[in-house]
Amino acid sequence: MRIASLAAALCLMALPALASQQSSRTPGPHRDTAALCRAECLATAASRPGGAAANAPQACAVRCDAAVSYLRSQQAPGTAEATGRGAVMQPVAIARPARPAATHGVIYGARTPSAAFGMVVGEADRLAAHRSAERACTTAGPGCRVLAEFTEACGAVAQGYKRSQWALFISSDPNSYVITSLSAGAGPRQDQAERQALAECRSRDPQANCRVVAAACAGQRG
């Protein structure tokens, strides 16, 4: 408990310096958003068992800068921040065709032989997509890491597996096989995402069996 508290204190002490370093790169209206994001990220890292890692401030800065970059990309042309001239420039109303908002997909996978993974597709917020996929993975397996990040509509996960040395043949019994790899795929259609995941699986180990264990597209309802 003392170690976790000390780690949390160190993270919070590092926040002002980190915010100062990043503020010069974050335009006015988004500075508060970036600071709040980093504070939330550091607090979350400090609350984890063992406390925050030494690189937590840097990792939080990378994630939050990505979120702010996405917000800036959605800034409508002609606004004060986009023109850089404040109220001097009067925006002109121009009819533009509606453009679908970008969505984010993320796939996390645990260390093999664990079969745990987490997949999110069609999430409007990039950081929320990362948090949801990582949470789903870590509740089922250890050592989760990012397998893929994409803006395609569909994502898929494929498993590579081989017969267990204790089994005569592979069956539906999990004890009859061993997971050797987890691979991810993405595409505008589900079948394309599945093909990409299977191709990645086979490239990892041509001797392994490969199968799609999950696939989803933005807007799908279970």
From TrEMBL:
Residues 110-217 form the DUF4189 domain. Residues 1-19 form the signal peptide. It comes from the Bacteria. InterPro entries: DUF4189. Pfam families: DUF4189. Keywords: Signal. This is DUF4189 domain-containing protein.
